[in-house]
Amino acid sequence: MKRSNPTRNVPHPSGGGIPGQRSRTDFAGSSTRRLARRTRKRQEWEAETVRRLQVESGGTMPISGLAPKPPPVLVLYDDLVGDELGPAPVYGQYPRGLIERVLPWLRCERHQILHICSGSLPRGEGIRVDIRPEACPDFIADGRHLPFADGEHVAAMIDPPYTPGYARSLYGVPYPRPAHLLREAARVVRPGGRIAFLHYITPKPVRGVRFVKAFGVSTGFDMPIRALTIFERDQKGLPL
Prior knowledge:
Blueprint: H1 24-56, H2 98-106, E1 113-116, E2 127-130, E3 139-140, E4 153-158, H3 164-171, H4 178-188, E5 189-199, E6 209-217, E7 226-233
Parallel strand pairs: 1-2, 1-4, 2-3, 4-5
Antiparallel strand pairs: 5-7, 6-7
């Protein structure tokens, strides 16, 4: 003998439907709450990262509208310390010693590197490109639209803003997608030239470049870790 389903044809407490079934309004409310939670967590993550990077940068990152402090002297060349023509204390610099360590992977001389989003790099440190005039770069330009010919440079390093919040507050620009920056860097680097990309993510290779290697970069315990990714432009077009 078949047993009847005691829940069949029993009205739902909310006014109809199958018991336990959620209404469209319930789903919409849940989606809104999930989005709000994700947004809140993202904001908390950015705030904590800003705090950590403020410590890491030696106080060069502007907080609460205050002017950033000059970068630590150890980051600069001794003969450029106190140079009046150097950059203003804007936020943005590589971890100490990074350029020297990445040179074997870029396979070039230090002065040949094109630095995209150069930040507080001093005069004489390669070819510096930044969108902020107060950084006193060699070229004021957007990293997505560089004022150079195809294949003009030997190698490049890119250290862009890592989040939309950083892009707005530190550079006053929309978030530059890593793929766009990498594609433009690949255009101006000669065939066989290499690009070092410092970011919180490891960007996917774009057309015309190949992935070489990725490293984890940190300045110490309890500090954020970044990815330094090495790419190489295709050899296509080189004479045999």
